[in-house]
Fold:
Amino acid sequence: MDFDQLKQAQGSMWGSGPFEEVEATLADMHNTIVASIGAQPGGAWLDVGCGTGGVAGRAAKAGAKVSGVDLALALIETARKRAEAAGLDIDYQVGDAENLPFEDGAFTAVSSSVGAMFAPRQQVVADELARVCAPGGKLAFSAWRPEGGIDEFFRFMQQYQPPPPEGVGNPLEWGRKETVRMLLGNSFDLEFEELDSPLVIESGEAFWDLMSRAFGPTKMLAESMDDEARAEFREAFIEFTERERDGDVIRQSRPYLLIKGTRR
Structure:
């Protein structure tokens, strides 16, 4: 599978469920990203890997002139419907973080909320973020850190998934400061914050229901299995999640790195 085929498959995968339900669990992260840049009325803002519009909608409500790009047509269609229902004028496009369909320096604010980190060629993405960001413009990029709940979840899922194609970057590398400095440090003055976006849900079974229905990677993986394998996967998934029980709820730590940059 070449990278173009991989990205086509990724677009189908991420768009296979109602991702807005998962996005709702990231509201605190989205608020932090928008606040870290500070939307300027009329300022040109690009959200890369925009999903169903969690960051883009907030930036538009704050007065920015927002564009959003995502590989998944289904997610873009949902984002457009949500923007229309909220009375927001947002330019949503299907597009590739490795080949953004915008001119050099077109935006004074560029963001990505655990989205662009999944593109296969990390330096290509970093170069594109720098290319479309105007001198003096602001960057806010969140990435899961290679520790804690998300790292453990990825490792659990890898037991059931085929290995990625050769040459695909590990998304969690974006959660390492030293990696980000190599990727973006020549173009941006960088600052970092280590934050957490905890997930609280009533049970492992409730988490399975959410992820197997609304989170594309888990949904498509489960659907690719026969009945016996899917039942075993479900049982293991619930057991894995229940390890994070805290009294009456599951409380999963989701540590992330907030990358803040100013374009040189």
About this structure: Strands lie at 44-48, 65-70, 91-94, 107-113, 133-144, 188-196, 199-201, 245-246, 249-252, 255-263. The two ends are 37 Å apart (CA to CA). The longest strand covers residues 133-144.
